[in-house]
Design brief:
By secondary structure, the protein is an alpha/beta fold. The chain is 46% helix and 12% strand. Strands 3-4-5 form a three-stranded parallel β-sheet, covered by helices on one side. The radius of gyration is 18 Å and the shape is globular.
């Protein structure tokens, strides 16, 4: 939204504060997902209905391997923490669940990675990242980690979306997958015996 405000100003307009645009976006997004959230809150469906296929099995496998996992999202923290809880995935992330803050300089996926490296808890080459956005793929690659691009063609999540593939490959994704149904093969490649 900072970039949007800058573009408005470049074109001679008087932009709103970027937070105002962000709040407009969140209101529109919440309108769009309201029924899904209600369905989950009221337990009218299993959380897996809204998972990328194979996600739970992958999370279970990674936990069994003893990996310390973190969930980081560009979605505002309050919203993403609730969504992670409703989707019953928050329990896998013993490293924490992190979302965007209004003070964008206080948190980003890149800042989280840098904090973990600075704490000497992990070296950059020890990072394994999964994501559908180019920013997280780029952030993991910048520190020497391995990045799995999830180029899901929604809503079925059965095939690779070619536009997403190009975008994620363009910033260095080591692997591109349409979903997590291939988790056994993927883990065999990531963690050879």
């Amino acid at each position: 939204m900072i970039a949007l405000a800058e573009e408005i100003e470049k074109r001679g307009g008087k932009p709103l504060d970027p937070l105002a645009y962000k709040n407009q976006y969140l209101a529109l997004l919440n309108d769009r997902i309201r029924d899904t959230l209600a369905e989950l809150r009221e337990e009218r469906c299993p959380p897996e209905k809204y998972h990328v296929p194979g996600a739970r099995a992958l999370l279970e496998s990674l936990r069994e391997r003893g990996l310390k996992m973190y969930l980081a999202s560009g979605t505002d923290h309050a919203y993403m923490a609730e969504e992670a809880r409703l989707l019953d995935v928050d329990r896998y992330f013993d490293g924490g669940v992190y979302g965007a803050l209004d003070d964008y300089k206080s948190f980003s996926k890149k800042i989280l990675i840098q904090r973990l490296i600075a704490s000497s808890e992990f070296a950059g080459s020890q990072f394994l990242g999964f994501g559908d956005g180019y920013v997280e793929i780029e952030n993991v690659k910048e520190v020497g980690g391995v990045a799995v691009g999830v180029a899901t063609a929604e809503p079925e999540c059965l095939h690779v979306d070619e536009w997403k593939r190009k975008r994620l490959s363009g910033v260095g994704a080591d692997f591109i997958i349409p979903n997590y149904l291939c988790h056994d093969e993927l883990l065999g490649t990531l963690f050879p015996a």
